[in-house]
């Protein structure tokens, strides 16, 4: 296999002051991000969704396979079918015993249930599929590497891009999600990863008043191995 050509990489070296300013500004922006379940029906231009997908696709991936597909849906009938199928699965989870009691108890403070009207309210649904393996020119399988990690990173950038535009979303995973592949006509080598409803928050939207873990709770600096380890 031919080696990729290499090109110079010379990003601008910022001053420490500018780096700190950008770090603080980006943290403040992302710290204001919240998952939303109440959306306005106001239209969102397709170009914004395109740019968010393009941004997500700048993510690193195993062997540069880019094993993701972003399927965008604005047609009301398809959104309705997705809502009906998602609610059927969610009902089994919330009311049919699929979720263990401790999981349901953990969800109670968030006030969620099997009803998902936002799947029809939003102007866009974007379903991200992970490409389990690629298909080469001869129709044979081509192995992908670190698929979940790669797609997860792309989804993180997608969320950040949407929030940066002033849009809201939710990481919705109505497990099992096989119905999304059937409704959207995707091939067998693709598996649903996350369903993103995308739009503007409703004028009366509310979100739980949550506290994020502090830096001290999530970061460890220069850990030392136990003294009995070689």
Largest sheet: 4 strands, antiparallel
Tally of DSSP β-strands:
6
CATH-defined superfamily: NADH Oxidase
Return the average pLDDT rounded to an integer.
Answer: 95
As a percent range, the share of helical residues equals 25-40%
Elements, N to C (H/E): HHEHHHEEEHEHEH
Characterize the overall form: globular
- The tally of helices reads 8
CATH architecture level-2 label: 3-Layer(aba) Sandwich
Helix-strand makeup class: alpha+beta
Please indicate the percent range of residues in DSSP E strands (runs of 2 or more): 5-15%
Give the strand line-up of the largest sheet: 1-2-6-5
Top CATH class: Alpha Beta
- Within the CATH hierarchy, at the fold level, what is the topology? NADH Oxidase
Number of domains: 1
Describe the structure.
It is a single chain. The model has no long low-confidence stretch (mean pLDDT 95). The chain has 230 residues and is of the alpha+beta class. The protein has a single domain, classed as NADH Oxidase, CATH 3.40.109.10. The strands form two sheets. The protein has a four-stranded antiparallel sheet. It has a two-stranded antiparallel sheet with strand order 3-4. Strand 3 and strand 4 form a beta hairpin. Helix content is 37%, strand content 14%.
Topology:
Blueprint: H1 16-31, H2 46-56, E1 68-73, H3 76-94, H4 101-107, H5 118-121, E2 124-131, E3 133-135, E4 141-143, H6 147-164, E5 168-169, H7 178-184, E6 190-199, H8 215-218
Antiparallel strand pairs: 1-2, 2-6, 3-4, 5-6
Helix pairs in contact: 2-6, 3-7
């Amino acid at each position: 296999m031919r080696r990729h050509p290499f090109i110079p990489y010379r990003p601008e070296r910022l001053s420490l002051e500018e780096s700190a300013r950008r770090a603080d500004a980006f943290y403040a922006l992302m710290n204001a991000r919240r998952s939303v379940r109440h959306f306005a029906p106001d239209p969102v231009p397709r170009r914004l969704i395109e740019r968010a997908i393009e941004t997500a696709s700048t993510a690193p991936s195993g062997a540069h396979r880019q094993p993701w597909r972003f399927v965008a849906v604005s047609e009301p009938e398809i959104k309705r079918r997705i809502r009906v199928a998602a609610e059927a699965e969610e009902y089994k989870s919330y009311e049919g015993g699929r979720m263990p009691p401790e999981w349901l108890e953990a969800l109670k403070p968030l006030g969620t249930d099997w009803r998902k009207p936002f799947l029809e309210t939003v102007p866009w649904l974007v379903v991200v599929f992970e490409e389990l393996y690629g298909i080469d020119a001869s129709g044979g399988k081509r192995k992908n590497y670190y698929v979940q990690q790669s797609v997860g990173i792309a989804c993180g950038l997608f969320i950040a891009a949407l929030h940066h535009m002033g849009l809201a979303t939710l990481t919705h995973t109505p497990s099992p999600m096989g119905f999304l592949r059937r409704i959207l006509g995707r091939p067998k080598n693709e598996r649903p990863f996350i369903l993103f409803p995308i739009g503007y928050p409703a004028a009366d939207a509310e979100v739980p008043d949550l506290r994020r873990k502090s830096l001290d709770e999530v970061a460890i600096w220069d850990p030392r191995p136990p003294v009995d380890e070689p």
